Amino acid sequence: MQIRRAFIQWMLAFFAALMSASIITFFSQNNIISVGIIFVAGAGLLYVLSHAWYSPLSIFVGSSFLFMLIGSKLIIHPVDGYFGGVGAGSFYIGVPHIILVLGIFSVAIYRSRTRSSALIRNPIKHDINKRLLLFIGFVLVSALISPYAAASLPQLNLYLSLASVYLFWVYSFKRMEREKIVRLLIGFFTLAATIEMILVGLQIWQGQLGLNFLGEGTVEERAGVSIPSVTGTFIHPGPLSLFFCICMSILFPFILQSRNKMAIIGFTLSSVGMIMTFSRTSMVMMIPILLLEVMFLRFGGIKLSKLKVFLMSAVAAIILAFFSGMIQDRFDNLQSDSSDEQFDNRFTHFSMAWTYIKKEPVLGYGLSSWSYVTHKLQLPSAIGISHTFFYDNPVHNIYLYLWFEGGLCLLLMFLLFVGHTMYRLVKLIRRGNTLECGLFAALLCILVYGMTGWGLFNGSQLLYLMFLLMAISESLYRVAYQSKPKVEITGGYKDEEDRDFRHYGIQKQGRGRTRDYGSGRHSYGK
User: Fold this and answer.
1) What does the alpha-carbon distance between residue 16 and residue 428 come to, in Å, rounded to a whole number?
2) With contact defined as beta carbons under 8 Å apart, do 14 and 66 qualify?
3) Quick one: average pLDDT of 151-159?
């Protein structure tokens, strides 16, 4: 019964995700036929009606996970060929805005069942993160000082929508059982890895699939290997590779601690997918990060099966041996006489960024302004860099990228926001928590990968995922260390848990007695 309910919830979330992609495609391309519009309307109605049978918060959270795979966006009066963030134009709307609307609806339904007048006030009142407010504050400053509003305002729109959704995510995860959060994470990352691997296989087989409305990037030849640079539903192989690394980091602890076949499938698919992107940064960083997870689990007092460690090592060795030829060619291509100049280009890009940063080190040049500023402001020390790649594409380092956009202030606020969350995860890991270990490693992947790539800010999907993972981390910490916020309970219920169990008809067991709140029957054992 539980498996069937979970399957229906995932299907409802999947239809909601397709609904958003179809709506955005309709407004941007205006090529959806009447049948498609009927399907979209039906999917939206299905999402609404599902709240009558299932927990509104579970539906909202499940939809939030699946929507992450979609890179659809609508930009009014877009500026063609502008690279940076979500692009440039008069107005931006994307997946975070749809999730925000769904969150308001689902939380309002949930709160209405408590017979409380504070439908939306409580999430905002109790779940505000001060470090997030500081970060968003300096993002706002960066947007205001930007010389190119067409690029800064859409990016500011994205940040504000993510910060708003973050509050609803924290509110929802705090009210969910830990086991349900674990099942959602394992189920989503396994399903996501499966979907992306299917698309990767199709892209290798026939090239571009025409899934632009899902966020598919350009599939072209990869330097040093004989297969194309796959993108899945991401805009570039780099973000796809980082996503696979996050999948591996989340699933790995559950493989070592418990017999979870779904986690094993997801981890294996993610490992193969990460290698098939042929991202050298990802391949180099994942081995020490996985070893770090093993150390953290042992540090938290969690017993690990030596047999499982050996088997996972053997599986990794087999995967590496299968792709060893192409991996070696990919790394050999870094030699100075190779046609692949990415290694030298990185340092040239870093040097160019530092030249501009030294001129405006405190507040930077403005949000999403790299292409505009570097084309307009030709500093003498950067004039020798003539290739347009360095001016069109932001620097491939998230720390220099943030420093350029918002100065040292924005960079420090970002590190404070992420670093404080990771510090709290370490405190939870010391108590022997497996989930927190995976979350810590996932955030570490984002920070390490950001040293040589800007995939976190290339589009919106990975930034969206980072906010989602940090919301889960924040909710877990608050449940563990802080008192539960006061909730108005009326209607004869003892507390919020008692109300939820009665409403959803879930059996509550403990200490020899079973109470079936859904039917009103009460039976007591010895």
Assistant:
1) 34
2) yes
3) 93
CA distance 106 to 101: 9
Rounded CA Rg of the chain: 24
- Residue 286 identity: M
Q: Shortest CA distance to 312 belongs to which of 263, 275, 349, 355?
A: 263
pLDDT tens profile 400-431? 999 999 999 999 999 999 999 999 999 998 88
Q: What is the mean pLDDT of residues 486-507?
A: 42
Per-residue exposure over 105-127, b if at least 16 CB sit within 10 Å of its own CB, e if not: bbbebbbeebeeeeeeebbeebb
- Phi first, then psi: give them for residue 5, nearest 5 degrees: -65, -40
CA distance 473 to 428: 10
| Amino acid 314: pLDDT | 75
- Give 6: exposed, middle or buried? Use CB within 10 Å, 0-12, 13-18, 19+: middle
Residues in the chain, total: 526
pLDDT classification of 31: cutoffs 50, 70, 90: very low
Give phi and psi for 47, each to the nearest 5: -60, -40
Query: Which has the minimum average pLDDT: 33-42, 59-68, 366-375, 469-478?
Result: 33-42
Dihedrals φ, ψ of 94, to 5°? -150, -160
Q: Which residue in the block uniquely carries the two structure tokens 């098939």?
A: 276
Q: Reduce the DSSP state of residue 204 to 3 states and report it.
A: helix
Percent of the chain with pLDDT over 70: 74
Nearest-10 Cα torsion for 362, 363, 364, 366? 170
Residue 116 DSSP one-character state: -
DSSP characters over 9-62: HHHHHHHHHHHHHHHHHHHHH----HHHHHHHHHHHHHHHHGGGTS-HHHHHHH
Residue 159: name the closest of 175, 137, 181 by CA.
137
CB 71 within 8 A of CB 46: no
pTM over 0.90: no
Phi, psi of 507 (to 5 degrees): -70, 130
Neighbours of 70 (CB within 10 A): 22
* Cα three-residue angle 362-366-370, rounded to 5 degrees: 110
H or E stretch covering 203: helix 178-206
Q: Which residues of 339-371 are buried (b: 16+ CB within 10 A; e: fewer)?
A: ebeeeeebebbbebbeebbeebeebbbbbbbbb
Can you tell me whether residue 74 is helix, strand or coil? strand
